[in-house]
Write a structure and sequence with these properties.
Blueprint lengths: L9 E2 L6 H12 L2 H4 E3 L9 E4 L3 E4 L3 H14 L3 E2 L11 H53 L21 E2 L2 H7 L8 E5 L2 E7 L5 E7 L7 H13 L8 E5 L6 E5 L7 H4 L10 H21 L3 E3 L8 E3 L5 E3 L6 E3 L6 E2 L12 H6 L1 E2 L1 H17 L15 H10 L4
Parallel strand pairs: 6-10
Antiparallel strand pairs: 1-5, 2-3, 3-4, 7-8, 8-9, 9-11, 10-11, 12-15, 13-14, 16-17
Helix pairs in contact: 3-4, 4-6, 8-10
Keywords: ATP-binding, Kinase, Membrane, Nucleotide-binding, Serine/threonine-protein kinase, Transferase, Transmembrane, Transmembrane helix
Family: Belongs to the protein kinase superfamily.
GO cellular component, one term: plasma membrane
Amino acid sequence: MDTCESRGELHRGTSIRTCHYKLIKSFLRSFGNNGVVSRFNNTFVVDEFTVAATIWVDFDDVDSIRAKVSYAKEKGLLGYSVFQLANDDNWILSKAAQEVDEDHHKRRLLIIVLLSTVTVIILLGIVFCYCHRGTAATITKALYKIRKCLSGAEQDHVEGNGSDLTAFSYLTIKMATNNFSRDNKLGEGGFGTVYKGKLRKGEEIAVKRLSESSNQGLEELKNEIALTARLQHVNSVRLLGYCTKRDEKILIYEYLPNKSLDHFLFDPRKSILLDWSKRANIIEGVTQGLLYLQEYSNFTIIHRDLKASNILLDHNMNPKISDFGMARIFRKYDLEANTSRIVGTYGYVPPEYVRKGIYSTKYDVYSFGVLLLQIISGKRTSCYYGPHENMNLLEYICGRGRSGWS
Protein backbone atom coordinates (compact mmCIF):
# COMPACT_ATOMS: atom_id res chain seq x y z
CA MET A 1 0.00 0.00 0.00
CA ASP A 2 1.37 3.37 -0.99
CA THR A 3 0.57 6.00 1.64
CA CYS A 4 2.04 9.42 2.22
CA GLU A 5 2.56 11.60 5.20
CA SER A 6 1.35 14.79 3.56
CA ARG A 7 -1.63 15.08 1.36
CA GLY A 8 -0.88 15.00 -2.37
CA GLU A 9 2.90 14.44 -2.07
CA LEU A 10 4.71 14.31 -5.44
CA HIS A 11 7.34 11.64 -5.96
CA ARG A 12 9.53 10.09 -8.66
CA GLY A 13 8.54 6.49 -8.19
CA THR A 14 6.55 4.26 -10.49
CA SER A 15 2.91 5.04 -11.18
CA ILE A 16 0.29 3.46 -8.91
CA ARG A 17 -1.58 0.53 -10.38
CA THR A 18 -5.32 -0.26 -10.10
CA CYS A 19 -4.59 -3.48 -8.20
CA HIS A 20 -3.36 -1.39 -5.25
CA TYR A 21 -6.71 0.33 -4.95
CA LYS A 22 -8.59 -2.95 -5.04
CA LEU A 23 -6.53 -4.11 -2.08
CA ILE A 24 -7.36 -0.87 -0.27
CA LYS A 25 -11.06 -1.39 -1.02
CA SER A 26 -11.00 -4.90 0.39
CA PHE A 27 -9.17 -3.63 3.41
CA LEU A 28 -11.75 -0.90 4.02
CA ARG A 29 -14.74 -3.16 3.40
CA SER A 30 -13.49 -5.62 5.98
CA PHE A 31 -14.31 -3.03 8.63
CA GLY A 32 -17.88 -2.59 7.45
CA ASN A 33 -19.77 0.70 7.21
CA ASN A 34 -19.29 1.53 10.86
CA GLY A 35 -15.56 1.10 10.72
CA VAL A 36 -14.85 3.61 7.94
CA VAL A 37 -15.45 7.28 8.67
CA SER A 38 -15.11 10.14 6.23
CA ARG A 39 -13.22 13.01 7.79
CA PHE A 40 -14.47 15.77 5.47
CA ASN A 41 -17.14 14.92 2.91
CA ASN A 42 -18.69 12.26 0.73
CA THR A 43 -17.78 13.67 -2.68
CA PHE A 44 -16.73 11.51 -5.58
CA VAL A 45 -13.19 11.52 -4.20
CA VAL A 46 -12.92 12.22 -0.49
CA ASP A 47 -10.03 13.95 1.19
CA GLU A 48 -9.28 11.48 3.94
CA PHE A 49 -10.49 8.25 5.48
CA THR A 50 -9.83 6.93 8.89
CA VAL A 51 -10.07 3.24 9.58
CA ALA A 52 -10.98 2.05 13.06
CA ALA A 53 -10.01 5.52 14.31
CA THR A 54 -6.33 4.63 14.11
CA ILE A 55 -5.39 3.80 10.50
CA TRP A 56 -5.71 6.67 8.04
CA VAL A 57 -5.24 7.16 4.31
CA ASP A 58 -4.87 10.62 2.69
CA PHE A 59 -6.58 11.68 -0.54
CA ASP A 60 -6.89 14.82 -2.62
CA ASP A 61 -10.03 15.99 -4.28
CA VAL A 62 -10.42 15.83 -8.04
CA ASP A 63 -9.42 19.45 -8.76
CA SER A 64 -6.30 19.14 -6.63
CA ILE A 65 -5.40 15.93 -8.36
CA ARG A 66 -5.78 17.51 -11.79
CA ALA A 67 -3.70 20.53 -10.83
CA LYS A 68 -0.94 18.42 -9.36
CA VAL A 69 -0.96 16.00 -12.28
CA SER A 70 -0.46 18.96 -14.59
CA TYR A 71 2.41 20.10 -12.38
CA ALA A 72 3.89 16.60 -12.37
CA LYS A 73 3.76 16.46 -16.16
CA GLU A 74 5.37 19.85 -16.49
CA LYS A 75 8.23 18.87 -14.17
CA GLY A 76 8.69 15.46 -15.76
CA LEU A 77 7.78 13.57 -12.56
CA LEU A 78 6.93 9.90 -12.86
CA GLY A 79 4.23 9.43 -10.19
CA TYR A 80 1.93 10.95 -7.62
CA SER A 81 1.12 9.43 -4.22
CA VAL A 82 -2.67 9.55 -4.05
CA PHE A 83 -5.46 7.02 -3.98
CA GLN A 84 -9.00 6.99 -5.31
CA LEU A 85 -11.28 4.27 -4.08
CA ALA A 86 -14.16 4.91 -6.45
CA ASN A 87 -14.07 4.14 -10.18
CA ASP A 88 -10.58 2.55 -10.15
CA ASP A 89 -10.36 1.79 -13.84
CA ASN A 90 -10.78 5.45 -14.81
CA TRP A 91 -8.55 6.83 -12.13
CA ILE A 92 -7.32 10.16 -13.45
CA LEU A 93 -3.97 10.42 -11.72
CA SER A 94 -2.86 6.86 -12.34
CA LYS A 95 -3.56 7.27 -16.03
CA ALA A 96 -1.81 10.63 -16.16
CA ALA A 97 1.17 9.31 -14.25
CA GLN A 98 1.42 6.38 -16.61
CA GLU A 99 1.29 8.76 -19.57
CA VAL A 100 4.11 10.77 -18.04
CA ASP A 101 6.07 7.57 -17.55
CA GLU A 102 5.40 6.48 -21.14
CA ASP A 103 6.33 9.92 -22.49
CA HIS A 104 9.55 9.84 -20.53
CA HIS A 105 10.29 6.33 -21.81
CA LYS A 106 9.66 7.45 -25.38
CA ARG A 107 11.93 10.44 -24.93
CA ARG A 108 14.67 8.25 -23.51
CA LEU A 109 14.24 5.75 -26.34
CA LEU A 110 14.35 8.55 -28.92
CA ILE A 111 17.51 9.99 -27.36
CA ILE A 112 19.16 6.56 -27.31
CA VAL A 113 18.26 5.92 -30.96
CA LEU A 114 19.49 9.36 -32.04
CA LEU A 115 22.74 9.04 -30.10
CA SER A 116 23.31 5.53 -31.48
CA THR A 117 22.65 6.69 -35.04
CA VAL A 118 24.95 9.70 -34.71
CA THR A 119 27.64 7.51 -33.13
CA VAL A 120 27.43 4.96 -35.95
CA ILE A 121 27.63 7.72 -38.58
CA ILE A 122 30.66 9.26 -36.86
CA LEU A 123 32.37 5.87 -36.58
CA LEU A 124 31.72 5.11 -40.24
CA GLY A 125 33.14 8.50 -41.16
CA ILE A 126 36.23 7.85 -39.05
CA VAL A 127 36.70 4.41 -40.61
CA PHE A 128 36.30 5.85 -44.11
CA CYS A 129 38.78 8.64 -43.43
CA TYR A 130 41.19 6.22 -41.81
CA CYS A 131 41.07 3.80 -44.75
CA HIS A 132 41.24 6.61 -47.27
CA ARG A 133 44.07 8.42 -45.55
CA GLY A 134 45.67 5.15 -44.52
CA THR A 135 46.65 4.41 -48.11
CA ALA A 136 48.41 7.75 -48.49
CA ALA A 137 49.99 7.42 -45.04
CA THR A 138 51.28 3.95 -45.85
CA ILE A 139 52.77 5.16 -49.10
CA THR A 140 54.35 8.15 -47.39
CA LYS A 141 56.00 5.85 -44.87
CA ALA A 142 57.26 3.70 -47.72
CA LEU A 143 58.98 6.73 -49.21
CA TYR A 144 61.04 7.17 -46.05
CA LYS A 145 61.66 3.52 -45.33
CA ILE A 146 63.04 1.45 -48.22
CA ARG A 147 63.07 -2.20 -47.38
CA LYS A 148 65.87 -3.05 -44.95
CA CYS A 149 67.75 -5.45 -47.15
CA LEU A 150 71.31 -4.61 -46.27
CA SER A 151 72.99 -5.44 -43.01
CA GLY A 152 73.29 -2.08 -41.31
CA ALA A 153 70.90 -0.54 -43.81
CA GLU A 154 69.01 0.92 -40.86
CA GLN A 155 71.87 3.36 -40.34
CA ASP A 156 72.29 4.25 -43.99
CA HIS A 157 70.71 7.40 -45.33
CA VAL A 158 68.47 6.63 -48.27
CA GLU A 159 68.83 9.18 -50.98
CA GLY A 160 65.77 10.22 -52.89
CA ASN A 161 63.55 9.27 -49.96
CA GLY A 162 60.53 10.83 -51.56
CA SER A 163 60.66 14.22 -49.85
CA ASP A 164 60.64 15.87 -53.28
CA LEU A 165 57.59 13.95 -54.44
CA THR A 166 54.25 15.72 -54.71
CA ALA A 167 51.00 14.25 -53.39
CA PHE A 168 48.71 15.46 -56.17
CA SER A 169 45.00 15.97 -55.58
CA TYR A 170 42.56 13.97 -57.68
CA LEU A 171 41.06 17.19 -59.06
CA THR A 172 44.48 18.37 -60.28
CA ILE A 173 45.09 15.11 -62.15
CA LYS A 174 41.55 15.08 -63.52
CA MET A 175 41.96 18.60 -64.91
CA ALA A 176 45.46 17.87 -66.25
CA THR A 177 44.22 14.86 -68.26
CA ASN A 178 40.97 16.53 -69.38
CA ASN A 179 38.98 14.11 -67.22
CA PHE A 180 41.08 11.15 -68.40
CA SER A 181 40.08 11.78 -71.98
CA ARG A 182 40.65 9.16 -74.67
CA ASP A 183 42.47 11.81 -76.67
CA ASN A 184 45.04 11.97 -73.87
CA LYS A 185 45.60 8.22 -73.74
CA LEU A 186 49.20 7.17 -74.38
CA GLY A 187 48.90 3.46 -73.78
CA GLU A 188 46.98 0.73 -72.04
CA GLY A 189 47.91 -2.58 -70.47
CA GLY A 190 47.00 -5.09 -67.80
CA PHE A 191 48.05 -2.64 -65.08
CA GLY A 192 45.83 0.18 -66.30
CA THR A 193 46.12 3.20 -68.58
CA VAL A 194 48.73 5.91 -69.15
CA TYR A 195 47.53 9.42 -70.03
CA LYS A 196 49.27 12.55 -71.12
CA GLY A 197 48.59 15.50 -68.87
CA LYS A 198 49.46 19.15 -68.54
CA LEU A 199 49.66 20.99 -65.23
CA ARG A 200 48.56 24.61 -64.80
CA LYS A 201 52.12 25.89 -65.10
CA GLY A 202 52.45 24.16 -68.45
CA GLU A 203 54.55 21.17 -67.37
CA GLU A 204 53.69 18.03 -69.31
CA ILE A 205 53.30 14.82 -67.33
CA ALA A 206 52.55 11.15 -67.86
CA VAL A 207 49.78 9.82 -65.62
CA LYS A 208 49.74 6.10 -64.88
CA ARG A 209 46.29 5.21 -63.56
CA LEU A 210 46.11 1.67 -62.21
CA SER A 211 42.86 -0.15 -62.86
CA GLU A 212 40.88 -1.84 -60.08
CA SER A 213 41.50 -5.22 -61.71
CA SER A 214 45.22 -4.56 -62.07
CA ASN A 215 47.64 -7.18 -60.81
CA GLN A 216 49.69 -4.30 -59.51
CA GLY A 217 48.17 -3.68 -56.11
CA LEU A 218 48.97 -1.35 -53.25
CA GLU A 219 52.13 -3.26 -52.34
CA GLU A 220 53.50 -2.90 -55.87
CA LEU A 221 52.45 0.75 -55.94
CA LYS A 222 54.36 1.47 -52.72
CA ASN A 223 57.30 -0.47 -54.07
CA GLU A 224 57.38 1.49 -57.31
CA ILE A 225 57.11 4.83 -55.52
CA ALA A 226 59.82 3.95 -53.02
CA LEU A 227 62.26 2.65 -55.63
CA THR A 228 61.65 5.10 -58.46
CA ALA A 229 61.81 8.08 -56.10
CA ARG A 230 65.38 7.25 -55.08
CA LEU A 231 66.78 6.42 -58.52
CA GLN A 232 69.03 9.16 -59.86
CA HIS A 233 70.17 8.14 -63.31
CA VAL A 234 69.73 9.55 -66.78
CA ASN A 235 68.49 6.18 -68.02
CA SER A 236 65.77 5.69 -65.40
CA VAL A 237 62.41 7.43 -65.57
CA ARG A 238 61.78 10.25 -63.08
CA LEU A 239 58.81 10.03 -60.74
CA LEU A 240 57.16 13.37 -59.92
CA GLY A 241 54.44 12.32 -57.50
CA TYR A 242 51.39 10.23 -56.83
CA CYS A 243 47.68 10.40 -56.03
CA THR A 244 45.74 8.04 -53.77
CA LYS A 245 42.57 10.08 -53.30
CA ARG A 246 39.13 8.50 -53.84
CA ASP A 247 40.68 5.03 -53.70
CA GLU A 248 42.69 5.80 -56.84
CA LYS A 249 46.21 4.48 -57.43
CA ILE A 250 47.89 7.01 -59.70
CA LEU A 251 51.57 7.68 -60.42
CA ILE A 252 52.80 10.86 -62.12
CA TYR A 253 56.00 10.69 -64.19
CA GLU A 254 57.98 12.99 -66.40
CA TYR A 255 56.47 13.02 -69.86
CA LEU A 256 58.49 11.26 -72.58
CA PRO A 257 57.07 12.18 -76.01
CA ASN A 258 58.19 9.09 -77.93
CA LYS A 259 56.32 6.63 -75.71
CA SER A 260 57.87 3.17 -75.35
CA LEU A 261 60.32 1.17 -77.44
CA ASP A 262 57.76 -1.43 -78.54
CA HIS A 263 55.83 1.27 -80.45
CA PHE A 264 58.77 1.50 -82.84
CA LEU A 265 60.22 -2.01 -82.83
CA PHE A 266 57.10 -3.89 -83.85
CA ASP A 267 55.50 -1.34 -86.18
CA PRO A 268 56.64 -1.85 -89.81
CA ARG A 269 56.30 1.86 -90.58
CA LYS A 270 57.84 3.29 -87.40
CA SER A 271 60.64 0.74 -87.20
CA ILE A 272 62.41 2.40 -90.14
CA LEU A 273 63.01 5.39 -87.85
CA LEU A 274 65.24 3.16 -85.74
CA ASP A 275 68.39 3.08 -87.81
CA TRP A 276 71.39 1.16 -86.51
CA SER A 277 72.82 4.24 -84.87
CA LYS A 278 69.65 4.79 -82.82
CA ARG A 279 69.35 1.10 -81.98
CA ALA A 280 72.95 1.03 -80.76
CA ASN A 281 72.26 4.15 -78.67
CA ILE A 282 69.20 2.50 -77.12
CA ILE A 283 71.17 -0.66 -76.33
CA GLU A 284 73.92 1.38 -74.71
CA GLY A 285 71.45 3.43 -72.65
CA VAL A 286 69.62 0.35 -71.34
CA THR A 287 72.99 -1.23 -70.52
CA GLN A 288 74.03 1.85 -68.52
CA GLY A 289 70.70 1.93 -66.68
CA LEU A 290 70.90 -1.77 -65.84
CA LEU A 291 74.52 -1.42 -64.71
CA TYR A 292 73.46 1.41 -62.40
CA LEU A 293 70.71 -0.72 -60.85
CA GLN A 294 73.03 -3.65 -60.22
CA GLU A 295 76.35 -2.00 -59.41
CA TYR A 296 76.27 1.75 -58.77
CA SER A 297 73.12 2.50 -56.79
CA ASN A 298 73.13 2.27 -52.98
CA PHE A 299 71.31 -1.03 -53.23
CA THR A 300 71.24 -3.71 -55.87
CA ILE A 301 67.88 -3.53 -57.58
CA ILE A 302 66.42 -6.37 -59.64
CA HIS A 303 63.79 -5.05 -62.02
CA ARG A 304 62.15 -8.42 -62.87
CA ASP A 305 60.12 -6.99 -65.75
CA LEU A 306 62.65 -5.58 -68.19
CA LYS A 307 61.03 -5.55 -71.65
CA ALA A 308 60.46 -3.33 -74.67
CA SER A 309 57.24 -1.75 -73.35
CA ASN A 310 59.04 -0.70 -70.15
CA ILE A 311 61.77 1.17 -72.03
CA LEU A 312 60.55 4.73 -72.58
CA LEU A 313 62.09 7.11 -75.13
CA ASP A 314 62.59 10.85 -74.72
CA HIS A 315 62.53 13.41 -77.53
CA ASN A 316 66.08 12.41 -78.56
CA MET A 317 65.23 8.68 -78.50
CA ASN A 318 67.30 8.17 -75.36
CA PRO A 319 66.00 5.19 -73.34
CA LYS A 320 64.76 5.27 -69.75
CA ILE A 321 63.91 2.17 -67.74
CA SER A 322 60.44 2.40 -66.16
CA ASP A 323 57.82 0.41 -64.22
CA PHE A 324 59.48 -0.75 -61.00
CA GLY A 325 56.33 -2.27 -59.51
CA MET A 326 57.80 -5.80 -59.58
CA ALA A 327 61.34 -4.76 -58.62
CA ARG A 328 63.12 -6.01 -55.52
CA ILE A 329 66.00 -4.61 -53.50
CA PHE A 330 68.83 -7.10 -53.17
CA ARG A 331 71.66 -7.39 -50.68
CA LYS A 332 74.95 -6.36 -52.23
CA TYR A 333 76.69 -9.62 -51.45
CA ASP A 334 73.78 -12.03 -51.83
CA LEU A 335 73.81 -14.18 -54.93
CA GLU A 336 70.16 -15.21 -55.20
CA ALA A 337 66.80 -15.35 -53.42
CA ASN A 338 63.61 -17.39 -53.57
CA THR A 339 60.00 -16.43 -54.06
CA SER A 340 56.74 -18.34 -54.25
CA ARG A 341 55.16 -15.69 -56.43
CA ILE A 342 56.21 -15.86 -60.07
CA VAL A 343 56.05 -12.47 -61.79
CA GLY A 344 57.29 -11.10 -65.07
CA THR A 345 56.38 -11.32 -68.76
CA TYR A 346 56.40 -14.46 -70.87
CA GLY A 347 59.52 -14.70 -72.99
CA TYR A 348 61.62 -12.50 -70.71
CA VAL A 349 61.65 -14.75 -67.64
CA PRO A 350 64.68 -17.04 -67.09
CA PRO A 351 63.92 -20.79 -66.90
CA GLU A 352 65.30 -21.30 -63.36
CA TYR A 353 62.93 -18.64 -62.09
CA VAL A 354 59.92 -20.40 -63.58
CA ARG A 355 60.99 -23.83 -62.32
CA LYS A 356 62.28 -23.03 -58.84
CA GLY A 357 61.32 -19.43 -58.07
CA ILE A 358 65.00 -18.44 -57.86
CA TYR A 359 65.90 -14.91 -58.87
CA SER A 360 69.10 -12.89 -58.82
CA THR A 361 70.86 -10.22 -60.85
CA LYS A 362 71.03 -12.82 -63.63
CA TYR A 363 67.27 -12.44 -63.99
CA ASP A 364 67.61 -8.97 -65.51
CA VAL A 365 70.65 -10.04 -67.54
CA TYR A 366 68.55 -12.78 -69.15
CA SER A 367 65.72 -10.32 -69.84
CA PHE A 368 68.21 -7.85 -71.29
CA GLY A 369 69.54 -10.56 -73.61
CA VAL A 370 66.02 -11.18 -74.94
CA LEU A 371 65.49 -7.43 -75.34
CA LEU A 372 68.81 -7.16 -77.20
CA LEU A 373 67.66 -9.83 -79.67
CA GLN A 374 64.39 -7.96 -80.17
CA ILE A 375 66.13 -4.65 -80.85
CA ILE A 376 68.30 -6.34 -83.48
CA SER A 377 65.62 -8.53 -85.09
CA GLY A 378 62.47 -6.49 -84.51
CA LYS A 379 60.57 -9.66 -83.52
CA ARG A 380 58.19 -10.30 -80.63
CA THR A 381 58.55 -12.93 -77.93
CA SER A 382 54.87 -13.83 -78.12
CA CYS A 383 55.03 -15.12 -81.72
CA TYR A 384 56.32 -18.37 -83.25
CA TYR A 385 58.82 -18.54 -86.07
CA GLY A 386 60.55 -20.98 -88.39
CA PRO A 387 59.38 -22.97 -91.42
CA HIS A 388 56.63 -24.59 -89.39
CA GLU A 389 56.07 -21.65 -87.06
CA ASN A 390 56.74 -23.82 -84.03
CA MET A 391 59.75 -22.04 -82.49
CA ASN A 392 59.79 -19.18 -80.03
CA LEU A 393 62.13 -16.25 -80.53
CA LEU A 394 65.11 -17.81 -78.70
CA GLU A 395 64.77 -21.16 -80.45
CA TYR A 396 64.43 -19.43 -83.80
CA ILE A 397 67.50 -17.22 -83.35
CA CYS A 398 69.61 -20.06 -81.94
CA GLY A 399 68.60 -22.21 -84.91
CA ARG A 400 69.47 -19.46 -87.34
CA GLY A 401 72.83 -19.04 -85.62
CA ARG A 402 73.68 -22.71 -85.97
CA SER A 403 72.76 -22.67 -89.65
CA GLY A 404 74.88 -19.58 -90.27
CA TRP A 405 71.86 -17.27 -90.85
CA SER A 406 71.31 -18.84 -94.23
